[in-house]
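Chapter review. Work through the record for MMPL family transporter before attempting the end-of-chapter questions.
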Amino acid sequence: MARWCYRHRLVVLVLWVGALFGLGAAGSAAGTNYSNSFSLPDTDSTHAYDLMVKAFPERSGDTDTVVWRVSEGSVRDTAIRERMEPALEEIAGMKGVGEVASPYSRAGAAQISEDGRIAYAQVTFAEQANAVPKELVQDVVDTAQDAERAGLRVELGGQAITRIQEPPTGTAELVGLAAAAVVLFLAFGSLFAMVLPLVVAIFGVGTGMLSTMLLSHATDVPEVAPLLGSLIGLGVGIDYALFIVTRHRKGITRGMAPEDAAVTALNTSGRAVLFAGGTVCIALAGMLVMNMRFLDGVVIATSLTVVLSVLAAITLLPALLGVLGPRVLSRRQRRGLAANGPDTSESSGAAARWSATVQKRPKSIALVAVVVMAALAIPVLSLRLGANDQGNHREDTTTRQAYDLLAEGFGPGFNGPLQLVARDAQPAAVQALVNTVRATEGVAQAVALPSPPGSGVTVIQVVPTTSPQSEDTDRLIDILRGEVIPQSGEEVHVGGVTAVFKDFAAVTGERLPYFVGTIIALGFLLLLIAFRSLVVPLTAALMNLIAAAASFGVLVAIFQWGWGAEALGLGKEGPITAFLPVIMLSLLFGLSMDYQVFLVSRMHEEWVHTKDNARAVRVGLAETSRVINCAALIMICVFSAFVLSGDMEGAMAGIGLAAAVALDAFILRTALVPAAMHLLGKANWWLPVGLEKRLPHLAVEPREDAPEPVGSAASGAVPVSASGSASGSVPGPRTALPAGTRGSVVHGFVRTRQGEPVGDAILTLVSPGGRQVDRVESLADGSYILSAPAGGAYLLAATAGVHEPWVRHIMIGGDPLVHDVLLSDVGVSR
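Structure tokens for MMPL family transporter:
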């Protein structure tokens, strides 16, 4: 498929562009129909909500609040009324506003605080918050705040008001893409190569979000789902393309034709991308175990975006590689390739040095990594799930100011009243319950609201003495449900936003162990099949749990403890949103599995060829750590940018996932995992014989086969004589092969053009895909022996001191190949 996409690139590009614009046109015509219902079946708050909807259908529109405060005097003063009443009347006359409940009406006395300095009016729109036009909301805000003067302060709160405080749609995505572009340019040094992952991510996320818009008409999709879909889609889309482009560029620099390099990259890293994308989708699908309808829409949006991102990486990307050809390399790399020939050098630089350090000191590095992760995980012990409201907004927002004014004038519990909903209760029983509730500790106010005739539903509004996010409010709900209501003998349910999120947190806590167990078991099974090992998947599961604990520790410290939250513009501290752990754990486990697959697949490939665990871990880490760290840095940029989304849940998910990726990539995958694998030795790859026979075979990165053109004369291969010696080489005695040497080998002597033997020359055998097959030093007499896993075309390279580097294409068959190397002080031997 990769070769077809490469050769038919224009067709592929037209199909993707057509899909993007087609979905865009359909989405614009259909609009969105997102759902914001967080209720759970068979919970007390859900029963209360259902009764409320039947009894008060006219209250289905969003209700927002206009709050004003005077610095001296009273809000009842004539001068204040003359400014506020005309403003409220003008708001009431706007198209799209249902009604305005003024504190200056006959029934509005309770809307003025006891000291008379704070009052509020309730504005009920005709639609829910997400359907109210932003222009109308802005007109309401402007009209109300135009009434301000010296000594009179006006603020507004509510869900519709919150929408106009949000940054423009796409701000977070654009900032994330810009940051990713900088990282990609520094990593590749090429403008064209930088653009490739960004284009792939844009197409994947764009088609995913537009498809989600259309699906919102067919099933319940929460409004936060597209945000989470774009968050995960941008991260994996850029990363998957990065892995493939890196492998493609390496193939070109090591002598492969661009088309062959693309095919090899898709057949190796592309397979790993498919496998990694599958693990992400499986982790996301684990949310279905929670049996929360709200999360089903999140699974659909995020999984669909991941699938389309993977599809873009394996179809659109090879087409784009075909358009660019060798320009995927920087100009400096292209000039170096033309002047010096293919690069056959072994991985070097900081990554190789770090890999060698891990091999030398695995115990010390593992200990340091464990201590760091354990310290970061400590705050998770105080994790408290709940709800975020407008009291957690930034101090400079009008919604936060309105929230604080209402708390000041009417008590902290006024912003989160509870609703006791009774069915077919007698008036005397209702009044008795009201009196009992008023006498309950923690209750500031309890009032029976007027009920529609014939509804059979009675609502008692209860204002706690504590804020909605207080643990005391949670205890009050438990007391009402467990003691007060049962004593009344009536069927009464406790509802309201605070009760809904408390129930959500309770259900999440109960089902979370099953959810975690499910995604760990599925991930374990996938890695078991892929790497034919029990220890590798066990290590991955343990590392995932460590990463989750540490990242949630960071989340608790910032958002629940408030360490730097206000300074970072994240708002006031509060509990962690109840549904966030489920979503974050799904994304975290999926992303962690990605890095585990890309790291261990390279180690496993080396282990299959050499059966040397130390070498497999060292080479795998040296060759993948740089690209993993680069990919992680991109994800950190993308996730952190979602702080700018204007959505508290989006900011929490962004910060939490950014911390998780940073810890996972920089500490776990490049330090703790390889250190542990060095300590475990060959046990890493142990699998019982009985299980080995029963497991299906799944190749994440298959062994690279040599493309036909590499060994042909057209590819520049050196003709080999019947004896196996390259034309122009110096004949001499042949070295006997040691017992036990693998069947496919190349051996000979390294000499100068004057016939002098060259000792300590470094000889490297490289596959066409760029993988180092073997590497040795020549002996004092210049002799060397290199092993190959199978016959085929390879690159043989030699370097030694002041001599010029030497590179040749060779063909190895079933019999040992004799190949002498001539080195020159002034140029490459021709």
